[in-house]
Write a structure and sequence with these properties.
about 70% helix; 4 helices
Length: about 70
């Protein structure tokens, strides 16, 4: 409950919607980003509300790199 209230204060509506969609596919990733945002907010390092573009950058930094698989037929 408290976590959701803080997230409403931190995120813009677009960013909140994006995080909701991420939660559907990757719940552990969304939880990690939420925890990181809350820690930044509590320490005063967030200058203002997090918009959609900022959330995209944060997600791309946190998301593990995907390995590319190439199949070569001989």
């Amino acid at each position: 409950e408290q976590k959701q209230e803080v997230m409403r204060q931190i995120l813009t509506p677009d960013a909140k919607e994006r995080l909701g969609r991420v939660r559907l596919g990757y719940p552990e990733l969304a939880s990690g980003v939420e925890n990181q945002l809350i820690m930044l907010h509590q320490s005063g390092k967030l200058p203002g509300p997090v918009d959609d573009e900022t959330l995209k950058r944060l997600l791309s930094q946190v998301q593990p790199k995907k390995r590319e698989i190439n199949i070569v037929r001989k």
